[in-house]
Each structure stands twice: as structure tokens, then as C-alpha cells.
Amino acid sequence: MSLVCSVIFIHHAFNANILDKDYAFSDGEILMVDNAVRTHFEPYERHFKEIGFNENTIKKYLQCTNIQTVTVPVPAKFLRASNVPTGLLNEMIAYLNSEERNHHNFSELLLFSCLSIFAACKGFITLLTNGVLSVSGKVRNIVNMKLAHPWKLKDICDCLYISESLLKKKLKQEQTTFSQILLDARMQHAKNLIRVEGSVNKIAEQCGYASTSYFIYAFRKHFGNSPKRVSKEYRCQSHMGMNTGNTMNALAI
């Protein structure tokens, strides 16, 4: 999967011309650049370490956070941050780039931590979404930021600096629609929540549905079963897994 953006940790100060503008980068400074701008940093690679982020990681990060969508007049070419614990960040990037990276959940949390350094920066969300190649992927990432939000097509257009007619046209070229992307994202989130949340009312609310009955209808139509049925199946699978584990432990004893 292609990279969307990179976080760059500068360990030696350098001057560079990026997109026809001169910049001075300091030792210990942290940058976040999208994949298109990243190529302009290639001549200076000896001055920094970096970690890349693919679309799947960005999608999961936006699902796990609750960042407010703020549009900016001109999208940032890259973001800069300082006053970050450089020793810790250096070790994190070294680990994430090493062959020892075999604990998926731990590595994912470290990746999210690297992104969160820039969460308060103006233009953060725009930079994340601009790095995604497909328009449908950009829309999906914006929606995943806050699935409980009553998203409208205009909201997405404001984030992407694009007209409603052009967005509809581009999504049609990718054989999808805004409504379909929103439905798929909400249904997948609902299915994940069912594993840990017993209240269908709460799940409906967290997925952006004001009506629980309509949520149940949409869920059944999407998956072929009601939320309660799917929840029961998950509980049965979990119970069987626990029994299998207990049997194995008994045999070991």
C-alpha cells in the first residue's frame, strides 16, 4: 500500500529549497509531509530519520481520535513541530523501522503517537486527506474522523476545497457515492462496536443515527442480520474460544 505521508525527525540542521522556497530546518525539529512533497526532501536524507504512514494507518488513526475538522484557506505544504522529547521520538522511529517490530498493537500505538504530535497544527487534517490518492479514500478518512457527526456532502466539499458537482463526478468515476461511503463506514464501525457495546441505542448514536429503529433496518439490510443477532454470534464465538483455551490449559497441567 502506497504511503500517504511521513513524519521526519531532523538530527542535523540543514538549509533546503522546498517547492521554490528556502527553509532552515533545526536539529530536533519534527516535520510532517505528504507523499508528494516528500520527494523534495530526498537530497537531504542524511540529515533526518523518518517513518511513513499508509492509508490504512491514517484511516485507523482518524477512527480512534476525535479531532475537529478545521478548513484552512491554503493547504499546508508540510507541518513543523518543536519542543518534542527528541530522545524518545528517536527511539520510537528507530523501533518502527527495525526488524524487531513484531508487536502489531504496540507498533500501531507508536504510529498514532507520532501523528498526534501534529494534531493541534492548523491544516493537520487537510494534509492527511490530501495525501490519499483516491477521492473516495479522502472522503472516507474525513467521515471516519467523527462517525457520529451528521455529515453532509457540503461538509466534505469544504474539507477538500471542491464543488459538490465535481465531487459527485469524481466519486462516480470511482464507482461510488458519498452516501455509500458514509453507509459503509458507519456499518463497519457498528460491527466493531457490537463486539464491546451491548446497547443497540448507544451503537446507533455513536454511528450517527438519530433513530435506533432506522439503524437496525440499515444494519440488517447491510449485513443480513440484526445487531442483536450479530452480537449473539460474537458472544458465542468468544465463549467457544475461552472454552478451548481452558481445555488447552487443563491438558498442559
Task: Please tell me about this protein's structure.
This protein is an alpha+beta fold. The chain has a domain of 132 residues. It has twelve helices and six strands. The strands form two sheets. A four-stranded antiparallel β-sheet has the order 5-1-4-6. Strand 2 and strand 3 form a beta hairpin. It is globular.
Descriptive tags:
two-stranded antiparallel ribbon; 12 helices
Q: What's the overall average pLDDT, rounded?
A: 84
Rg calc: 22 Å
Number of helices: 12
> How large is the share of residues in beta strands?
5-15%
> Mind describing the biggest β-sheet?
4 strands, antiparallel
- The general outline is globular
Strand arrangement within the widest β-sheet reads 5-1-4-6
Question: What is the end-to-end distance?
Answer: 44 Å
Please count the beta strands (DSSP E, at least 2 residues each): 6
* Proportion in helices: 40-55%
